[in-house]
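User: These chains co-purify. Model them together.
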Amino acid sequence: MTFRTKTTAGIATFAATLMLSGAAFAAQCETADMAAMDKPGGFPERALTMIVPYGPGGGSGQVARAMAEAVTAVTKVNINRDHKPGGSGTVGMTAYMATPADGYNVLEHIDDASSAHALDSSKPNPAEDLIPLVTSQVTFSQVYIRTNETRFTDWKSFVAWVKAQGGKASIANVSKEGSMERVSMKFITDATGMEIQQISFDKGAPRYGALLGGQVDALFEQPGDVRKFLDAKKFKPILTIFSERPAAFPDTPTHVEEGMSFAPLVRFRGFYVHAKAPADRVKWLQNAFQRAYCHDSYVAYNKSKFMDAIPSYRDTAGSKELITKTIGQYREVYKAMGLKVK
Amino acid sequence: MGNLSRQHIVETVVWLAMAAVLFVYSFEFNQSGEIYPPGPSAWPRAVIVLLVLAAFGNLYFHHKNGDSLQEGRIGLTRDDETLNAQRSLGANLRIGLILLLPFVFALSLKPMGFYSAAPLFIVGIIVLMGERRPMAILGITILIYVLLIIFFLVLLNANLPQGTVSPFYDISSQFLIWNTQFHNWLGK
Amino acid sequence: MIDNFLAGTQALFSDPFTIFIFICAVIGGMLFGAIPGVSMLTLAAIILPFTGALEPAQAIMLFAVIYCTGTYGGAITAILFNIPGSAENAPTAFDGYPMTQNGQAGKAVGSAVLCSAIGGVASALVMMAATEPIANWAISNIAAPEIFALVFFGLAVASSVGGNTIWKGWLSVILGVMIGTVGQDPIDGVNRYTFDFVDLAAGIAFVPVILGLFAVSEVFTQAEKKAVGTYNAPKFSLNFPKFAELWREKVAVLRSILIGFFCGILPGIGATLAAFMSYGEAVRWSKNKEEFGRGKLEGVISSETANNAATGAAMIPLLALGLPGGALTAIMVAAFEMHDLEPGPLVFWNSPDLIWVVFAAMFWANLSILFIGLLETKTILYLLKIPFQFLAPLILLLATVGAYLTRGLVLDVLVMFTAGIVGFLLRRSGYSMAGLVLGVILGKVGEGNYARGMQMMHFEPFSVSTGYFGRLAPIDLAFTTIYLPIGLLLLIGGLITLAASVWAALRARPSQMS
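Assistant: Joint model of the three components:
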């Protein structure tokens, strides 16, 4: 009992940091320094190259595009996006680390970089080997069912139904080993004691089609990715994996309310530059990316992806804090799961 | 030995050796998946088994029929007079170099970048193809290089490898700066 | 359907910018298809990042049009240089290139133009009628187990393509599947066969494999001919075919359209299989079998009609199931995703307007091959006049850029040149280059769907309730509805094909052909 109280208190603090720090940073958007941006020593005198370790179509590809366009709108400097997908982001990361640290090369990456470092510390630590320019998306996961589902209607009836199936129920997921999705599902199944077959889809369309076509019983996903299905009332969320109910989903209970006490893992996407890049250039980039976050086009994009449901913005210090915390969190989890942490 | 030639034996040995190496290496990732019990090694191993079966099938066919083709096959590659041509040592050396050069070029792309490596490659291929007139080599090299730059960099703004080491990276940078300046100038 | 088609056509031609994009796509597809070394894939990969700024309908239409005209354009390099623009143009080279050597390049290209247009237009019509009903039916009836069965069937057929014997066909396909296992596994994301090279975690893509096996290896072969002195410069000609000559081939055209369409529906191998099967049938039906491969017009016609007839059909699995049928349709998936759309059954529900603009564009693009194709071809024929020692570095560099730009990885350039050497060495050994490519493409799709299918069936594929036997799909016939286990039937079909080919191989008699 003491343990439980302690963990819950821990989550509360963690969540409070998530919410609070986000709120504090978000407030700066209105007062952002809109003074003309001086180019330090003429930098940049050419287009920047943004390495994106994922394909152009997914969440990362889309946010990279939205951010690059916003930066160009703010600074009139073009950004060429160089997509290097593969290896869960490791290929693009490795390619980025080999580029010169002259400030012309920037990187988009997601929380996978943090969990990769947590598992194997020889992989770059995004908070130390890189300088976060801005974290522009922070989001939470949910469990979805079909709106016209009759076998269960909410989380409680879902859990009861799954238990009655004796392991034959299924949930669609992107379940790479050690990923945010896999770890979160492990938390959920451990906490509820239910046995459910996860079906690992690496592409979005078949994953959503599987739920819609009745091939699986539920779906684990972030709300921005299934917005269209939510708006069209094809899917409905039955569980939010976050410490409190986001305003956009007032009727969906959180995992804490449903009696699960694990600290939620969030998905976050941000932009980085080499830690060794010249300081004045880094400053220019931070300014450019942080102001781009406030640009109308980017704000509209984030809104369309439910990225305003919880505070998404982190500046460099906020991002470092988020990354460091995330690495610590994963490291604990991996050890508990019996994975070899190097 | 039926109609088997040495070539058929070698062919089979190569296939079986490949299967053996791949099978041994599959232990590197031989683990049982948490949500997929067969694990990551199941599929490659099944494919290796099929590979071995097909290799023996192939050997059996040659044992029975020698080098003949199977009746009713479609899309066959035809015999080639090049095979029977007289080859000098010089010719073989040239072919070897033509096969090797693209490989060296590909390896140099990461450190040197496209902009620095491409002209050397063009010259190399033209010379290996038998062209000896210096002006033709120079002229065509410049022509191809400029065409590629205009098309991919200026027109399409494609992300070609920039290289990672100095001075090659700086040369690529300079190209990108010129490109930006050119586009800015066009914009005005 | 007519209303939708007219509405789509109107949307396509009412906005000047959309018309502009359409024209650029028609010309761009043909041009990139027709320049040796690059292909429509190169163009598609380069412009993909820029299409994000377009309207979704414009962007998707752009790729669909490039697909139609590029498939035709690939025939030009196959005929003129023996470098098929893509795997589906490979059989075009069997007779097309000998025709060029005989001084009949114009005739071959001219009939490719006409047949591509006919095949494409016919296929676009069927596509418009059939895609939506299939999509609606597929969403609840076709899932991982059925897709795996479909891939299995496709692989069983693929082994019959291009090898000297069925065993070599199989070895080629299996090697391709094996190459497809390099990189992260589709379920747990564990690295396989990466030998500690980080880039290999991204896996081996099929675009560089295709470029290497078909374009690079041909440059090597020509270079060898120059080195040993057997090189013959191709002859230049502009004698286009006469109408009467083409009319004589009407049976071949009709047969090829049917073959093209039915093969095109198979994901992953559609157009390639179509072209090979159509060529094979042409040989089988012919009284003068020995004329094939020496410059017979019917060979070119069969292959080109069938591969364009497959373009429309290939849109069915793409749009109805979200399954890309090949490299270009895979890039189209990315284009959809960039606009926050997912190809698959949901597309008809999400954005029907877009789909009809695309359908209309494909219809008109195929038709426009007729007019623009001939004009463009006259220009491209002049490429033959360039001495090969100057063309070779250009082709190799274009292929380098083409391989690199798809994923931004130097690894892909290395893979391409390796494939080039492999192709150069294996070309005359009776192995099947097309089979190898099909193995790479289908192997990856097959493994992911096998694993997901097993998970869905709780690792009991032959359980009566939840396994293949229990997965019954309704088929509406005019008088009644029947329920069929689609996946099971496909598996059985694949097994029969397999058994038949093994049986034939074991009893094989040597061919009279060589």
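Residues 46 and 118 of chain B are 42 Å apart (CA to CA).
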